[in-house]
Protein: Molybdopterin molybdenumtransferase
Amino acid sequence: MSIEWTAAREAAWQAGRSTACAAEVVPLAEADGRTLAEPLLALTDLPAFPTSSIDGWAVRGAGPWRPVGRVLAGGTAEPLSADNTCVEIATGAMVPDGADALIRVEDSTRDASGLVSGQPRPVPDWRMPGEEATKGEELLPVGTPVDPAVVGMAATCGYDAVRVTPAVRAALLVFGDELLTSGAPGDGRVRDSLGPQVPAWLRRCGARITPDAAVGPVEDTLDAHVDAIRQAMRTADLVCTTGGTMRGPVDHLHPAIAALGGEYVIDTVAVRPGFPMLLARLPGPDGRARLLAGLPGNPQSAVIALVTLVQPFLAGRHGRSLPRPARVTTTAAVHGRRGDTHLALAALDPDRGTATPVGHVGSAMLRGLANADGFLVVAPHTEAAAGDALPFLPLPLLAGERPARPAGGE
Ligand SMILES: Nc1nc2c(c(=O)[nH]1)N[C@H]1C(S)=C(S)[C@@H](COP(=O)(O)OP(=O)(O)OC[C@H]3O[C@@H](n4cnc5c(N)ncnc54)[C@H](O)[C@@H]3O)O[C@H]1N2
Ligand code: MOO
Structure:
């Protein structure tokens, strides 16, 4: 039942695409971070009218010119109807009909009687309608992530609101009676390191999760698991769970999926670490399907499941393309993991286009993850030597969050 890693990412993305639902309209002030559900069109020509790029004079005919008025940004310009006349013009103002040149104030002089003389620059100092875009032109396609520049572009075009893909509400259920939620580990107990970090990864992948939607530890009984999943499905479109993906004495995830009438989209992936990850479709209380992503309990494995299943699912759901690993040169050998894909934590040097594997990369460890920028991808049945080009899957971090630094090794 195990599926190859690249096929798993594709299948998770397809699962997102096939569950995409009706778009919503949000005001521009709330659009940052969303995804366009319809193309951004030029609602008018841009500029919408001939626009002066300078402070100076709009002139008609041969000089010297007699000033007959003034046009400021925001005003409409009267036509300049007589030769040898001009109007004073401000940057951003509409160029009057009839004007045949603009002269910068610093390129002009005025005589005692107030007549203006001067030379226009060889390249006209005004912008013509349609220079940036023509009315109806598609400026950005469906699936474009809305960032500050996109918000600005939409405002320039005249949009007050944009149609975006609906928010995906996520919930997190942390399983494991051995987990402490405060204080230092010891006496057989470990700190829950997934409850605090998974919501933050989910947000960076485009899901919405409120603090009360992260619940745990959920008691290690089947009933408690079923109840917690059922409760989470009331409000969440995507339920992530951590732990319990194997078939140990207190691993209740698979029986809970069965009890809730779920069906697997993906049940284990041929990747190391992280292979017991899963994606299942469950009927929600309103009859609409919910997605459940089962992240393995080992903390690094859980993050690998996030980038393998959850990030592609959310990309598909939002109509975004599947993030494709770029190729970099590994500075050190990376072992293959036989028939499984090996995801090896590495620190990127973007200037050199290299990545260096980091140390402390056991699946139970987070130290390597906290010092890496992403994963080198070693294909099944291959070994990588220093100098080989390998795909590199970046962690879903925001720009500038983790400046790539020279890799530290151990
Ligand atoms: N007989 C086998 N046992 C295991 C195998 C195997 O192939 N055969 N694979 C191992 C691998 S690989 C993984 S990954 C884990 C996955 O197990 P589960 O998803 O069922 O996770 P748990 O058993 O609940 O926990 C595993 C491990 O992770 C720690 N953990 C769990 N949750 C958290 C958390 N929120 N924060 C910090 N640490 C957490 C937990 O204490 C365990 O040490 O199965 C292996 N076993
Ligand atoms: O695959 Mo486990 O997910 O190596 O730790």
Q: What stands out?
A: The chain has four domains: 3-21+166-317, 29-43+140-164, 51-127, 326-394. Confidence is low (pLDDT under 50) at residues 405-410. The pocket of LQZAQKY5 (ligand 1) is lined by residues 174, 176, 178-179, 190, 192-194, 242-246, 248, 251, 276, 296-299, 301, 363-364 (CB under 6 Å).
